[in-house]
Design goal:
Layout (H helix, E strand, L loop, with lengths): L16 E2 L2 E2 H11 L3 E7 L5 E3 L2 E3 L3 H8 L7 E7 L3 E10 L2 E16 L2 H7 L5 E7 L1 H17 L4 E6 L5 E5 L2 H10 L5 E10 L2 E12 L1
Bound molecules: zinc ion (2 copies).
One zinc ion binds next to strand 2 and helix 1.
Length: about 210
């Protein structure tokens, strides 16, 4: 006995069925239930996009990560995109089989400040490395630590020249400052200044004094 699609009347003798509906009506139903636009959060300073929990370079891969959760249980694969829209391949695993459709969505840009740019904007710092002694070694150190912080998504807040000829380097992360110093095997004299209390925890700013011979 052939079945008939309740939407278009097509018979299961002629076309493929998925559950009670013919395949093309099942696809149309899926298409109409999918979002027509997606929200993408973009940092207005650096242009990175929010992909998952953190901000990342605006690549196709990261755009796909940002779009995926907006499609519920469906699998989403990015086919093509520009600033304003994205072409997606969306598939839904139903109990009667997998349905796949292509759909174009509008990209709605939401401007924000990413965590890094926000900290930069308020001159945030957690640690200071005080460099004294050999000027050549000091400039090499500053070059290297700037690159290291960049690569790890942190930054040098500012660099101050001291009257003695030394430099104070203000850094956005004490964890990273500590990691850099132990990695480069430099001996430092450390001190800790209470900067405030946050959620009942004492917050310290760390100072590392390094002397080059
Ligand atoms: Zn139909
Ligand atoms: Zn940013």
């Amino acid at each position: 006995m052939p079945r008939f699609c309740p939407t278009c009347g097509n018979s299961s003798d002629k076309v493929r069925f998925l559950g009670n509906f013919c395949e093309s009506c099942a696809k149309a139903k899926l298409l109409s239930a999918l979002p027509k636009s997606v929200d993408i959060t973009i940092c207005k300073r650096c242009g990175r996009i929010k992909a998952g929990k953190s901000f990342a370079e605006p690549s196709g891969r990261n755009l796909e990560v940002a779009i995926r959760p907006q499609f519920g249980r469906c699998k989403v694969h990015l086919i093509d995109y520009d600033d304003a829209s994205a072409m997606l391949d969306v598939s839904d695993d139903t109990m009667h089989g997998t349905l796949s459709v292509e759909t174009k969505v509008e990209i709605v840009q939401k401007k924000a400040l990413c965590d890094v740019c926000y900290k930069k904007a308020c001159n945030y710092y957690e640690a200071v490395i005080q460099l004294r002694g050999n000027g050549h070694k000091i400039s090499k150190f500053i070059e290297r630590i700037t690159r290291f912080f960049d690569l790890n998504n942190e930054f040098v807040t500012r660099i101050e020249r001291e009257s003695s000829g030394g430099y104070d380097v203000y850094l956005s992360s004490k964890r990273l400052a500590q990691a850099y110093l132990s990695r480069s095997g430099l001996h430092s004299t450390n001190s800790y200044t209470l900067a405030g209390v946050k959620n009942g925890k004492r917050i310290y700013k760390n100072t590392y004094a390094v002397r080059y011979e």
